[in-house]
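Researcher: Before we compare anything, I want clean individual predictions. No alignment, no superposition, just each chain on its own. First chain goes here; please echo the sequence and then give the structure tokens.
Model: Echoing the first chain and its structure:
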Amino acid sequence: MLPRRALLRAAGLTGLSALARRATGSQLRILCYHGLWLAPGAPFGSCLFMTPEMFAARMARLARSGLPVLPLGEAVERLAANRLPRAAVVITIDDGWASTHSHMLPVLEAHRLPATLYATTWYAGRDLPVINVAVDYLIAASGRAGEDRGAVIRRIEALPEGERLAALRDYGCALGVGEQWLERRQFHLMRPDELADAHDRGLDIQLHTHRHIDVAGRIGQLLPEIDANRAAILAATGGAVPEHFCYPSGTFHPSAPALLAASGVRSATLVSEGLNAPAADPYALRRFVDGQHVSASAFDAYLDGTLHYLSHARQALERIEVEVPRRVAAASGMLLCAL
């Protein structure tokens, strides 16, 4: 099978990309970002952080494309009514890393692109880096793959809040990792004053649970988490009541849509790749997770709809690859029975 990059190049050269864009014009595209990498070295995490230069290039590429970029709330309403402009796009950013305020927001402003931030808020009110992500980075940066990350995280998180940063710094020092990550607030989330400033500058602040919970495993905590998350956002921004949600890490539970609707939430996004047709479930909207290792051709292919058809083709081939050996095995079994 041809590599995906070669297939995407062939689609552009043969005009299939233009056909895909026309055929999928009524479907909503939703881009997903996280944070930017401000510490030295290559970005940590496959899709968690990208360089500021890459994010700036992506937004410039999107602005040049001429595709209509809509605010999330407007897009959700128009999708349900089948009144979207052709190939409409929404920009979403998950978590609320400090780099969203310091580096992403100025880029969005420069291109006049609306965007939504799904903010998780427990860490926002505390001057602490996100412990589990920082520990993972320290282990990776030290090269000590044998470290028991779970035990380290549990030990630090069991401490009183006022002692956790010192314990994290001690751990990094023991591993021989410098503190540029701390100096640049790489693993901090936006403070309430930064959320307020971002809101005042036009960034749409929406729901992501208070503690970034696993919805699939902790469905009983979803409503209290939404309430606490919403209260924290309102306290910081004084804006309209948040009514859009993103499943943390894409974790989904079948009971979640009804619970979200009961709590006044109008839409929810996943991290599953795909476009969203007018009949799409508003509580299971698909997105394209962009990241440092995502090529520009894949980014373009999502926006023009080519990835949509490649994904369907790949799934069909996988079904064939599974079904043919299964039929051969069944036929062999019948032959053995006959003998």
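Researcher: Okay. Second chain, same rules.
Model: Second chain and its structure:
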Amino acid sequence: MNLTSKTVLVTGGAGFMGSHFVRYLLEHYPHYRIVNVDKLSYAGNLDNLIGIKEESRHHFILGNIADEVIVRNIFKMEKPDFVVNYAAETLVDRSIAGPKIFVESNIIGTHNLLEAVREFDHIKKFVQISTDEVYGEILLGSATEESVCRPRNPYAATKAGADHLVTSYINTYNVPAVITRSCNFYGPNQYPEKVIPIFITNLLEGKKIFIHGDGGQTREWIFTDDHCRAVDAVLHKGEIGAIYNISSGESRSVFEIANDICLCMERDSSEIKFTHDRPGNDRRYALDWKKMRNLGWEPIHKFCDGLAHTIEWYRNNQTWWKRITEMPEFQEYYEHKYLTVQ
């Protein structure tokens, strides 16, 4: 463990994975101070920070990284040693309905952070959190870090654009940055529009599970703790200028996940219904993550174990997610998304 005092700026730290990483750093690095910046969009939730909001080493700032003045002031006042950029709009369906906010958060926000890193030379490393979706459909084999980006929806395109900005700042301005591209996250306190929590919460409320298309869309899945450990390895041991794919290597189709959840919750597969497919619904993603093994990282959570833990969390924290699912905005979004049922 590094006992040297450091300040880590985590953007999007009130969101799902950002809040998990904030907690991880506070637990594993007692000499680190965490500056947590989040604009508290619909998916940002201060309840994700319960138990650490008053931690003396944790400083929360309400702010939007798309505002360059706010970003510059934070860097000037807080003087971070490391920056980890989790802040992003992430849901493909929402990017199809309204891509502008994705451009603002994912591209302009990243640009503002890179400009601040460029200006303030005390930054030791900038970690850009990205996604396997930038590679586009991988029908056979696995994408390596050298694979060409072929994004097929607005969300993936904005993340690929941000990645290219990071690479350009590395090559042009010698910005000390690295990029991680991860498979799908899952775990406790994920916003219930995502596939695993929406399946779980629907069953807990006595509703059906709805699947877009035939459910054959396949993704690799990584539990929250494993992803935190991977980003930790990249932050402290990753090579400046490198890209690192992060994956568990465990693939599941949407239909298989629905069946797994029904089995874990002792529900019949008749709870599964199919609805219209959506545009840009890539069939398969897969990552080659050998470079992460070279950093000494391996996933330790099997999908079945992580899923059981996640189901138990949603079962025991219904106040947390019902506060979200009972909001008019969420109900309107849900009805629109699953309006046409086959």
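Researcher: What stands out in the second chain?
Model: The longest helix spans residues 100-119. Additionally, The longest strand covers residues 32-38.
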